[in-house]
Amino acid sequence: MSFRTAQIRLVSSHPEVYEPCDDSFALVDALLADRNHLLEHHPTLCMEVGCGSGYIITSLALMLGQDSPGVQYFATDINPDAVRVTSETLEAHGVHAELINTDIASGLEKRLAGLVDVMVVNPPYVPTPEDEVGREGIASAWAGGENGRCVIDKILPIADNLLSEKGWLYMVTLTANNPSEICIQMREKGYASRIVVQRSTEEESLHVIKFWRDFDTQADAKETTKTNKPVPARLMESLVSQFPLSSFWRSSGSNSN
Ligand SMILES: C[S@@+](CC[C@H](N)C(=O)[O-])C[C@H]1O[C@@H](n2cnc3c(N)ncnc32)[C@H](O)[C@@H]1O
C-alpha cells in the first residue's frame, strides 16, 4: 500500500481555522486501520462534517484513491475560512470534494438523505459554557457546551437521516462526552458501534467510534422500546468492555433517570 497520510501537507492555514491535531490524527488513523473494510464497502458518497483545514477529507480521498474510483466527496464547515483552507488543501493534493459553508448539513438534507455511505466527524467536543457554542471563528472548532455534547447531539440525528442503509459514521469523542451514552442513543436508532482507535493522555481519553446500522441492534432497540426493558445484557457487556467503567457507570446512572 503506497498511501501515506504523512504526505498531507498543510498548504494553507488561517488563524481562525483548526490545525490538524491529535484528534485529527486519531481519526485518520482510525480510517487507515479500517481502510480494507472501507474499500470492500465500495462507498459512492463520503462526507465530512466540520472539515477545518481539510486534513481528514483529503486523507480519506487519497486513502480510497484509485482503488475506489468514482466516489463523490462532500465536506461542510460552519466557518467560511475553513472551507477556503480545505479547498486549497484538496487542490494541492489533486483531489476534489464539494464544499459547503453551512451549519452541519443544513440545506443538504433533501439532496443527501439516505445517500452517505461514509461520514467522518471530528466535532467541537470540549466542555465549555453553552454561550461559547456557535461563536464565529476558531472558537467553533472546540466549543462543545455542556459535557461537550451540544454540537454532537445535533449531528447524530442528522447523520441518521443522511446515512445510507449501509452507511458508516466515524466520530471522535472525549471521555467527558460520555461516549457510552452516545452509543446507547445511537443504539436506539438501530446502530451498533465499536471503538476503532483510543488515545489516552494524562488529561483526557479520545475515542474514534464507528457506528453502523445493525439488524440485531434494531430488533433489540424495538424490543426495549416495546417492553420498556433495560438495555439487553449482551449490549451492556459489549459497552462495558469498550469503555472505562467510570464513564460507563456515569452514563448508566444518567440513563436510568
Ligand atoms: C475539532 S475541529 C476539526 C477540524 C478537522 N476536521 C480536523 O479534524 O482537523 C471542528 C470543526 O468543526 C467545525 N464546526 C463547528 N461547529 C460546526 C457546525 N455546527 N457545522 C459545521 N461545522 C462546524 C469547526 O469550524 C471546525 O472546523
Task: Name the descriptors.
257 residues, Rossmann fold, 11 helices, binds S-adenosylmethionine, 7 strands
Q: What is the tally of helical segments?
A: 11
Biggest sheet character: 7 strands, mixed
H/E topology pattern: HHEHEHEHEHHEHEEHHH
Shape: globular
Low-confidence stretches: 240-257
Bound molecules: S-adenosylmethionine
Fourth-tier CATH superfamily name: Vaccinia Virus protein VP39
Verbal overview:
With 257 residues, the protein is of the alpha/beta class. It has one domain (12-255): Rossmann fold, CATH 3.40.50.150. It has helices at residues 22-33, 35-41, 55-64, 80-92, 109-112, 139-142, 150-162, 179-188, 215-227, 233-242, 245-255, and strands at residues 45-49, 72-77, 98-101, 116-121, 163-174, 191-200, 205-213. Helix 1 (22-33) runs parallel beside helix 3 (55-64). The radius of gyration is 18 Å and the shape is globular. The model is unreliable at 240-257 (pLDDT under 50). Bound molecules: S-adenosylmethionine. S-adenosylmethionine binds at residues 18, 20, 24, 27, 49-53, 55-56, 76-79, 82, 103-104, 122-124, 140-141, 151.
Layout of strands and helices, then pairs:
Layout: H1 22-33, H2 35-41, E1 45-49, H3 55-64, E2 72-77, H4 80-92, E3 98-101, H5 109-112, E4 116-121, H6 139-142, H7 150-162, E5 163-174, H8 179-188, E6 191-200, E7 205-213, H9 215-227, H10 233-242, H11 245-255
Parallel strand pairs: 1-2, 1-4, 2-3, 4-5
Antiparallel strand pairs: 5-7, 6-7
The structure holds S-adenosylmethionine.
